[in-house]
Write a structure and sequence with these properties.
This protein has 129 residues and is mostly helical. It has two domains: 29 residues, no CATH class; 95 residues, no CATH class. Helix content is 63%, strand content 9%. A two-stranded antiparallel ribbon has the order 1-2. A hairpin with a 2-residue loop joins β1 and β2. α3 packs antiparallel against α6. The longest helix is centred in the last third of the chain and has 22 residues. The chain is globular and about 45 Å long.
Length: 129
């Protein structure tokens, strides 16, 4: 005998004997990567004038560590890190990717450009002050 288990707007046929466990499994599989990385300690990033380059580097390294812990694929890393960017940082990213070919936008590209913008440049700016 089969029942329909609902998850969001979708229905899935499951046997009556293990309906609950299969629904829980479907929910686990459908959990967004962003929810997973937040569970492991990934935080949003908002650039401020007071940001210390070491603090920014720590944020990036912590985020990379989280991706390694959950064995994320590079495309998931890219999507997740973009979802963590806020305010002017998110605007910077959107502007940047609008200027480069889509196939160039990779996880490695993101890390390189982020470091150039928020670590190297801030270090130089602080040194001039």
């Amino acid at each position: 005998m089969f029942k329909q288990a609902k998850l969001g707007n979708a229905s899935y046929p499951v046997s009556a004997s293990n309906t609950a466990s299969q629904v829980v499994e479907l929910q686990r599989l459908n959990k967004s990567p962003v929810d997973k990385i937040r569970k492991y300690g990934a935080e949003e990033f908002r650039a401020t004038l007071d940001d210390d380059p070491e603090k920014v580097e720590f944020w990036l390294e912590n985020t990379i560590r989280v991706f390694d812990e959950i064995s994320s694929m590079p495309i998931e890393c890219l999507k997740c890190v973009i979802s963590l960017l806020r305010d002017t940082t998110y605007q910077w990213w959107n502007t940047l990717v609008s200027l480069v070919p889509r196939e160039s936008v990779t996880w490695e590209f993101c890390q390189t450009e982020f470091r150039k913008k928020y670590i190297c440049q801030r270090f130089l700016d602080q040194k001039h002050k």
